[in-house]
């Protein structure tokens, strides 16, 4: 086996290899550039989603607070209705007692 042939290619073969490697290197650099751009875009999108998520959490919290307030107000209205009904019954009884006197 001729080891010189293995280690020392002809100049034209080496030039072809170098040109091929340079082309592959350019392609890989372009791919890296595109991937970096994709990562940047994804990071931007992720940041926007994080901000949106925080806004939605705040809206949900506000909605819960409003629901609790609505529930309390409904309970107060029911208590006022009961109190009004009781007052009207007391007034009617007092009026009836006055008429009997």
From TrEMBL:
Residues 79-101 are annotated as: Disordered. Residues 10-101 form the KASH5-like coiled-coil domain. The keyword Coiled coil applies. Residues 18-66 form a coiled coil. The keyword Coiled coil applies. InterPro entries: KASH5, KASH5_CC. It comes from the Eukaryota. Pfam families: KASH_CCD. Keywords: Coiled coil. Residues 82-101 have a biased composition (Low complexity). This is KASH5-like coiled-coil domain-containing protein.
């Amino acid at each position: 086996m001729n080891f010189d042939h293995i280690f020392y290619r002809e100049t034209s073969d080496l030039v072809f290899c170098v040109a091929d490697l340079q082309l592959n290197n350019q392609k890989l650099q372009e791919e890296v550039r595109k991937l970096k751009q994709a990562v940047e875009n994804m990071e931007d999108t992720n940041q926007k989603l994080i901000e949106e998520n925080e806004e939605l959490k705040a809206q949900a919290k506000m909605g819960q607070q409003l629901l609790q307030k609505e529930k309390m107000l409904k309970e107060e209205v029911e208590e006022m209705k009961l109190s009004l009904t009781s007052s009207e019954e007391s007034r009617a009884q007092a009026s009836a007692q006055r008429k009997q006197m």
